[in-house]
């Protein structure tokens, strides 16, 4: 049994303009010790998948499929069991560290509260918090414990948010675009910290980002999302060396870090993503795909796996580029 087993997960938001399907039959496996990069353009459904995993989907959604975690289907769990799991097992670091931290409570009190389900006295939890702040590279940790979030820079706040997540000793740490709000230097420091966090998480990490370069430096596996579907997965090294899906190839061609001859204009993928609420026929990428042929207009390609099962692509051209 894998640590995380997602099977045919679909999520539809009920909006005033009608139903909007944000995830379509998403299936994914994550093993203990793996770091997965989840990439895709804005609106592709990355945060919806994360919210489903964190059991934080809003009330206006319909879900189907299975979210298997330790043999339980998270979608079918009763509310008290969900609450328990939220603070104990799956932790998150979000784009905006302010959302993780209470503005009117000192860092010290919050870091103790994050350990509410752990054994030990208040003093022991304080000691654990100080040592975690040290481990995430914060100087004068005892002094920081007495401060409020607004007294700290964005980079320090994000480090504290990571420390808070790690203090819960999660088996799954989900970082949803954790560096987007930071300047370039601080971003690199936080990326290094996330990389080091691998050793502190006895489980797996999902790293959500637009930045393919970050994925290639941090992750073992990558899942590429397009318009609510996972259209390619595989080991990072293989996917970046020989992408199978035309969308993955196009994304890589747009990555500034991979362009040999810098030009003034960044390449971009022509056309736009399907309108989320619209009925779909055929492959969702077909209108933008330079390699599309007749079947792509009519049939949404099923998942095709490599012989060893490590790679998957949803493309009628199949696995032949590997
Ligand atoms: P980004 O890279 O911009 O963060 P994303 O890949 O995380 O994008 P989601 O936020 O999961 O994408 O959004 C997927 C689709 O679901 C989008 O069309 C979005 O407008 C829609 N959506 C997200 N949250 C809600 C909501 N609470 N109610 C209705 N629609 C929503
Ligand atoms: Mg998002």
Automatic annotation (TrEMBL):
One of its GO terms (biological process) is peptide transport. It is an enzyme of class 7 (translocase). This is Nickel import system ATP-binding protein NikD. Signal peptide: none annotated. It catalyses: Ni(2+)(out) + ATP + H2O = Ni(2+)(in) + ADP + phosphate + H(+). It comes from Biostraticola tofi. Belongs to the ABC transporter superfamily. It holds the Pfam family ABC_tran. The keyword Transport applies. CDD domains: ABC_NikE_OppD_transporters. InterPro entries: AAA+_ATPase, ABC_Ni/Peptide_Import, ABC_transporter-like_ATP-bd, Oligopep_ABC_C, P-loop_NTPase. PANTHER family: NICKEL ABC TRANSPORTER, ATP-BINDING PROTEIN, OLIGOPEPTIDE TRANSPORT ATP-BINDING PROTEIN APPD. It is found in: Cell inner membrane. Its main location: membrane. Its EC number is 7.2.2.11. The complex is composed of two ATP-binding proteins (NikD and NikE), two transmembrane proteins (NikB and NikC) and a solute-binding protein (NikA). One of its GO terms (molecular function) is ABC-type nickel transporter activity. It is a peripheral membrane protein. One of its GO terms (cellular component) is plasma membrane. Residues 4-252 form the ABC transporter domain. Keywords: ATP-binding, Cell membrane, Ion transport, Membrane, Nucleotide-binding, Translocase, Transport.
